[in-house]
Amino acid sequence: MTAFYAIIPSRMKSTRLPEKPLKDIAGRPMVVRVAERALASGATDVIVATDHPDIVKACETYGVKVVLTSENHPTGTDRLAETVTKLGLDDEAIVVNVQGDEPLIPTAVVREVAELLAAHPECEMATAGHPIEDIEEFMNPNVVKVVRDAQGNAITFSRAPIPWPRDAFREDKTKLPDGLNPLRHIGLYAYRVKFLKRYPHWQQAPIEKWESLEQLRALYYGVKIAVAVLPGALPAGVDTQEDLDRVREVYAQGKI
Question: Where along the sequence do coiled-coil regions lie (predicted)?
Answer without folding.
Answer: none
